[in-house]
Amino acid sequence: MSTPVLDAVELMKENGFDQLPVITAKGILRGIVTLGNVLSLVTTGRVTSDAKVSDVMFRFQTGSSKKFREITPETPLAELEHFFENNIAGIVTERLSIDEDRVAFLPVHVVTAVDLLTYLISKKN
User: Fold this and answer.
1) How distant is the alpha carbon of residue 47 from its chain centre?
2) CATH number of 13's domain
3) What is the SS3 assignment for 97?
4) DSSP 8
5) Which of 19, 65, 100, 105 could be cross-linked to 29 through a Cys-Cys bond (beta carbons 3.0 to 4.6 Å apart)?
């Protein structure tokens, strides 16, 4: 999360991504950084070129107004379709038990509405 925003933007540019999951050193999902949010914050002067990813990311945390919606490899397609009515990307995760009361999410894949559409079209052919 201490990664410079410029590094995250470069990674998005090199790979054609619009968003990246933000993880801890142990691989635990903490949030997402999006190209649109970075662009908005930079163009309005709310962050500078020396900003860190933690300054621009959407955080996934309990009690947050932007709650993390769990998507797993077993999530039904109909649920994904509904999810993408209000979201541009989702992070497919696996659960990791921390203790009896807490779980962490490990990111497996970023999925977009385009991914879902591509899959649905290929299944019809």
Assistant:
1) 20
2) 3.10.580.10
3) strand
4) H
5) 105
User: Cα separation of 8 and 93, whole Å?
Assistant: 21
| Contacting residues for 48 by C-beta, under 8 A, at least 6 apart | 42
Write the pLDDT tens digit of every residue in 50-107: 899 999 998 876 555 556 688 999 999 999 999 998 887 888 999 888 777 777 888 8
| Sheet containing 58-59: order of strands | 19-23, 29-34, 58-59
Which residues span the domain enclosing 69? 5-124
Q: How many CA atoms lie within 13 A of 88 on its CB side?
A: 10
- Neighbouring CB atoms inside 10 A of 8's CB total 23
Helices (H), the chain: 5-15, 35-43, 53-56, 77-83, 113-124
Q: Which of 76, 74, 64 is nearest to 95 (CA)?
A: 74
Could you tell me the pTM of the whole model? 0.72
Domain count, the chain: 1
Contacts of 108 (CB under 8 A, 6+ apart): 73, 91, 92, 93, 94
